[in-house]
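S1.2 Input.
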Amino acid sequence: MQKPVHRIHFVGVCGTAMGAVAAALRELDLIITGSDDNVYPPMSTFLEAKGIEISRGFRPENIPSNVDLVVVVLPCVPVTTILLLPWRKKSFSVSGSE
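S1.3 Output.
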């Protein structure tokens, strides 16, 4: 049985599509965080206004340890990146879009 998803982290959150999805999920009262190499307005201010915390860079420490799901934007962030290796060893779900 899969556990409910309440906390989602988007790697590559400042892209137009992923930012919109993150904001829509936030509107459903989910806890959304994100990280990206390119954090700047207007997307950064849009996401912050929605209550979405954004970290700069693709580093493992930017992914909160209590997330239920990590969404990765491919090919912007290769799924083989070192960033995901620590999370694959745990029982987190990893989802990607190409």
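S1.4 Remarks. The first strand starts at residue 7 and ends at 11.
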